[in-house]
Design a protein that fits this description.
The structure is a homodimer. Chain A has about 220 residues and is α+β, with helices and mostly antiparallel strands. Chain A has eight helices and eight strands. Chain A has helices at about 5-15, 25-30, 35-50, 65-85, 95-100, 110-115, 165-175, 205-210; strands spanning about 50-55, 60, 140-145, 155-160, 180-185, 190-195, 200-205, 210-215. In chain A, the strands form two sheets. A six-stranded antiparallel sheet of chain A has the order 3-8-4-5-6-7. In chain A, strands 1-2 form a two-stranded antiparallel ribbon. In chain A, helix 1 crosses helix 2 and helix 1 (about 5-15) crosses helix 4. Chain A starts with a helix and ends with a strand. At the A-B interface, helix 5 and helix 6 of A face helix 5 and helix 6 of B. Chain A binds a DNA duplex (30 and 30 nucleotides) through helix 3.
Chain lengths: ~220, ~220
DNA sequence: GTAGTTTTTTAGACAAGTCTAAAAATAATA
DNA sequence: TATTATTTTTAGACTTGTCTAAAAAACTAC
């Protein structure tokens, strides 16, 4: 079994690897809010356990075993988020920290039964795909509103930014998952996007449009 | 907040205090399967945080603050056990270790909502009372079968031994919570108890009778 | 390709929690 | 009460995961 710290490192490396090609020590340190020297120590440890491929100064990647662990943690995180929102009626901006603890509950039997109890949900409350018990899941097929053309339509299906301040803003604007939107105009000055939703017209900044995802 | 180790010590002290008057270093060490020297170190730490009353060589007791923490952990443990059995269909002998991890999930808001989700259960799958969100719960009003007289009746309502080997034995014999039993005979040679249950007659040892609890 | 900057690693230290071995306090017994 | 025996505590060491400060390697730029 892996320690809590090891699990958090593996998850961080997995997430960074999906964004950039090679993952660096500094990136990991920033993402975990720790120091580069602490990261180096842990990388050696994870490398000894053959969970990552690591050579000094060269950056890291997950081994197959390491990726499996990381995906399992993400599966747990997303299933607990779904449970908290769907069964315990928490709001989507409230669940992250709790799920961050719950993802480390070790039993896989437990998480598989939880999955079944909830009807094998495919996406968590933020639209992120939930890996199945074999680690399989659909690669994210969502694109940001900022990539849409004028007069294109779509369904709000996910977010890139999971911070509660962003989620609360979306909630307030009614920009929640499942809503249909149409791009009416893109203001060239600052790329503000003008949307139509439920016969209402609203404007969102490029920043927001970039973090709000649409099903194709 | 308290660390995982601190929480486990507080819980252990709470449980021992309900059995014996003064709690000793060695008792705690035995119950946590650690060494007396480790216990002494932790006792100083908990004493500094005013969670226990401790003077060297004199044994310990929980302060009001410490008891509150301990009861809250027990509340979490028992609610998660109830969840695992009632919602995820685990058997009562399978849930202890999982609940042992889950009792350390910190959010009280989460546990209160879980409590509500399940309809505020009063007892966990082993018949132990579940403290409410204010830490209140009925002191155990159950007595062991070994304390029953011949021809007395009762309803199986709890267990003293939570080990999976004992619970599996009970399950196999059909001695599960809710069943009505009558004491037919107590064999004086070794205090074996002869029970009637569902028109069946069965014998249990004094050891078993002592660990199986009946509602008065 | 040398100098300067940035990134990464090493070296050494610290806190939490554990351990073994030895000392001190308490309890039990003759 | 003196002497064992037991319990508890101290002293010192180890592991995990972290940190700061300094050294080493890798980039960048001229």
């Amino acid at each position: 079994m892996n320690t809590l710290a090891e699990e958090n490192y593996l998850k961080a490396i997995y997430k960074l690897a999906s964004l950039t090609e090679s993952v660096s020590t500094n990136q990991i340190a920033a993402s975990l809010e720790t120091k580069a020297s602490s990261v180096t120590d842990m990388l050696r440890k994870l490398s000894d356990k053959t969970l990552i491929n690591y050579t000094r100064y060269q950056g890291v990647s997950l081994t197959e075993a390491g990726e499996k662990v990381a995906i399992n943690i993400i599966r747990k995180h997303r299933l607990w988020e779904y449970f908290l929102v769907e069964k315990l009626n928490f709001k989507w901006d409230e669940v992250h920290d709790m799920a961050e603890e719950m993802e480390h509950i070790s039993s896989n039997e437990l998480i598989d039964r939880l999955d079944e109890f909830m009807g094998f949900p495919k996406r968590d409350p933020h639209g992120d795909p939930i890996p199945d018990c074999n680690g399989q899941f659909k690669i994210n097929d969502l694109k940001p509103i900022s990539a849409m053309a004028v007069s294109a339509r779509g369904i709000i299906s996910g977010v890139r930014d999971h911070s509660s301040v962003f989620l609360q803003y979306l909630e307030k604007q009614g920009l929640i998952i499942g809503k249909k939107i149409t791009v009416k105009e893109i203001i060239s000055y600052d790329n503000t996007v003008v949307l139509q939703m439920d016969n209402k017209v609203l404007q969102i900044s490029h920043e927001v449009a970039n973090n709000l995802l649409i099903a194709i």
